[in-house]
Design goal:
- This protein is of the alpha+beta class.
- About 45% of the residues lie in helices and about 25% in strands.
- The protein has 26 helices and 30 strands.
- A hairpin with a 5-residue loop joins strand 6 and strand 7.
- Helix 12 crosses helix 13, helix 16 crosses helix 17 (about 505-515) and helix 18 (about 520-540) runs parallel beside helix 20.
- The chain is elongated, with a radius of gyration of 51 Å.
- About 30% of the residues are buried.
- The model is unreliable at about 1-25 (pLDDT under 50).
């Protein structure tokens, strides 16, 4: 407070805040200034505390209690400085300023009753009588705002430098555009190589995209869209177009007028390339690069849609499967097999037209869609070219490989619209070609479909037959020629089908081989034959019979065969030499070393091994000596050559002579006439079986036969 020159009034002024003169009041003389001050301070948004000439607080305004949370009595009766300023040095400084008021505001934080610290600036006024007042102004919100603004500014600077997107800002008032360094770098430019006009952006957009970008940006500026979001192609400095995504928001004034548009630019090129690669991978075979099943189905569906619109529209499906490809893979290795598949894909692609589709749908299966053909005979010409092209050997690691395929052909039918049905028909026709010997093609017919349905029904029934125990064994007797004594039996499987009656092996065994069901069926035959033989040994201990069990090639190749056979012998306790295992000549052709190891393990246990149907396959003398065989079985087709004429049965003679030279026993199958028995005995054949002696017998009939033989 300072005395004015006028005798009528005195003035009270607050110190300057941020360079501006503080508020003040003029009081006329004759009034109590302290009362006036209290009235004024009660209405100010300031903390005002009055102290006496001894430095004790004796009154304060409402703002003190409101902002600091202390009760008036606590601050008046207690020690204001110690309560609001816990630090002793701060208390000392505040007391000093109360006695010697400084010029200007002093920034000192204050502690509220709840422990919260408020940022405050303080002014000190001392009256002539030694009393005074302290005036405080809360700047906490201002400090927070300043910090937030500073943090936002720092973040924006850091953001524009570190993010992978470019920043753009178009001032609609001045028409100037800011492009960040990253925005320019996306297009391959340095900071000073692009101007600050919006056309510096638009002129680089692909001609097919630029109008769309401008339109959508204008729609957003006019308020017709909530935001700007557009993908487009933009020219890079290197002359190539890159994919980009621009996003932005318009900034409006208080009247809703658009003033600026700001946003980002993202380089989508790598993302687009990755998407394209993912799409390509999803629709193409990874090994050959051909279309996969998904893409093939889509192309066939397109062809069927075309056919619905055009009655004269024709197309065809070729289903191609490599014959004996497993042999190639197993003998040469899968890497060589892959090279063959790649070369086959290349040859097929060269044969067909550019608009046709060549697909690999799995393993060694390929499919060709011949689109928009002129005649249904066109696919047959393509099949001929494929077979002719495959006559040229495939050279893998300097080794020529002959490749043969089976092809099924399905042409457009008005009654079929689904892609899977066309593929099914072509698959059925291919299977028929393979059954006919392979290296040929077959055209689908409805009869094939019916046969395929019957085959599927048979397969389902075959799986159920295992669970329902519908199989049974018949036994054909084997006799020793030198004394016509019963030597043993050959176990022959039959299927007691619930609707078709008793089925012979040739009706279901090939299907069991193909589906892999031969493994559980074969295991059951071994166990059941051993169990029946055990029963006969127990009932007729005076005769030591043997039982012959046929093994499929799949069984011989299976790693669990030896374990299964030994388990059956252990359970039934029959002598190992009484079990004879028969296999065909083709066994071991694919993996001779593995087969030899398996057979040697069986031989080491005392089990006898027999080669069935000898002479009808591809046996060679070296192959025969390679396997640990005990018995050769002469096929019935050679036995039929033995007639009542004096002509010498040369084939049977040769087989018997070969067997004797290798110290092997010989069994002749299919013996039906007495003169065949006589001739086989003269040739030195050891054992015979056939209708001349007995048809296959049930277990009950075998028991009756044994009872008849051994009844005193």
């Amino acid at each position: 407070m300072e005395q004015d020159d006028s005798p009528l009034s005195f003035q009270l002024r607050w110190p300057m805040v941020n360079g501006q003169t503080g508020h003040g009041f003029d009081f006329p003389l004759g009034t109590d200034p302290y009362d006036l001050l209290r009235g004024v301070c009660a209405r100010l948004p300031l903390l005002v505390l009055f102290y006496d000439n001894e430095g004790h607080i004796h009154s304060l305004n409402q703002e003190v209690t409101t902002q600091l949370g202390w009760d008036t009595g606590d601050l008046i009766t207690g020690d204001f400085l110690s309560q609001c300023f816990p630090d002793l040095e701060t208390q000392r400084q505040m007391r000093y300023w109360m006695i010697h008021p400084p010029n200007g505001w002093q920034e000192v934080p204050v502690h509220g009753a709840d422990g919260q610290v408020l940022e405050m600036i303080w002014a000190f006024v001392r009256f002539p009588n030694g009393a005074g007042l302290i005036c405080g102004y809360n700047i906490t919100d201002m400090k927070l705002t300043q910090a937030a603004l500073l943090e936002t500014s720092d973040r924006y600077t850091l953001l524009t430098r570190s993010i992978n997107d470019g920043i753009w800002d178009w001032n609609l008032t001045t028409n100037e555009t800011f492009y960040s360094a990253r925005w320019k770098n996306i297009l391959g430019y340095q900071h000073d190589e692009i101007g600050n006009h919006i056309d510096d952006w638009f002129k680089r957009i692909h001609p097919q995209d630029v109008e769309r970008v401008k339109l959508n940006l204008m729609l957003h500026i006019r308020g017709q869209t909530p935001h700007f979001h557009q993908e487009f192609r933009i020219l890079h400095r290197n002359g190539a177009y890159r994919w980009a995504l621009a996003r932005g928001l318009v900034l409006r004034d208080a009247h809703g007028n658009a003033r600026r548009v700001a946003g980002s630019l993202t380089d989508l090129t790598e993302h687009r390339l990755a998407e394209a690669q993912l799409l390509y991978d999803a629709l193409h075979d990874s090994l050959t690069g051909l279309a996969n099943r998904t893409l093939l189905f889509d192309r066939i569906e397109q062809a069927t849609r075309h056919a619905r619109r055009r009655s004269d529209y024709k197309f065809a499906i070729l289903f191609i499967d490599i014959d004996r490809f497993k042999v190639i893979n197993d003998s040469l290795g899968h890497s060589c097999g892959d090279l063959i598949l790649i070369e086959l894909a290349n040859r097929l692609t060269r044969i067909v037209r550019a608009d046709d589709t060549v697909a690999r749908i799995g393993g060694d299966e390929f499919v060709i869609l011949l689109d928009d053909i002129s005649d249904n005979t066109d696919p047959l010409g393509v099949c001929d070219r494929i077979l002719s092209e495959l006559n040229k050997p495939f050279v893998v690691n300097d080794q020529p490989i002959a490749l043969r395929v089976s092809i099924g052909v399905a042409t457009r039918l008005a009654s079929i619209e689904k892609a899977e049905n066309y593929l099914r028909n072509a698959d059925i026709a291919m299977y028929r070609a393979k059954l006919a010997g392979g290296n040929r093609y077959q055209v689908f017919s409805e009869d094939m479909h019916l046969m395929a349905r019957d085959r599927l029904s048979l397969e389902i029934g075959l799986r159920q037959a295992i669970e329902r125990d519908e199989f049974t064994l018949f036994y054909q007797p084997i006799y020793r020629l030198r004394d016509n004594a019963l030597y043993g039996f050959e176990a022959l499987i039959r299927w007691q089908h619930p609707t078709q009656g008793l089925l012979l092996p040739d009706r279901f065994i090939p299907l069991a081989e193909e589906t892999g069901l031969i493994l559980p069926i074969g295991d059951w035959v071994i166990w059941r034959a051993c169990r029946d033989l055990q029963y006969w040994h127990e009932q007729f201990p005076q005769c030591e019979l043997s039982v012959n069990v046929n093994l499929s090639n799949r069984q011989v190749m299976h790693p669990a065969l030896v374990e299964q056979v030994l388990a059956a012998l252990e359970q039934t306790q029959i002598p190992p030499h009484c079990l004879h295992l028969e296999m065909t000549e083709s066994v071991g052709i694919d993996q001779p070393d593995q087969v030899r190891q398996t057979l040697c393990q069986l031989k080491a246990q005392g089990i006898k091994l027999s080669l069935d149907d000898f002479g009808t396959g591809y046996s060679s003398l070296s192959y025969l000596t390679h396997l640990p065989i005990d018995i050769l079985k002469v096929d019935r087709s050679f036995v039929k050559l033995i007639t009542e004429t004096d002509q010498r049965p040369l084939v049977v003679d040769a087989i018997v002579s070969l067997a004797k030279g290798l110290a092997l026993e010989v069994v002749a199958e299919g013996v039906e006439h007495p003169y065949q028995v006589t001739r086989l005995r003269e040739l030195g054949c050891d054992y015979v079986q056939g209708y001349y002696f007995s048809r296959p017998l049930t277990t009950e009939q075998v028991a009756a036969l044994l009872a008849q033989i051994h009844t005193p």
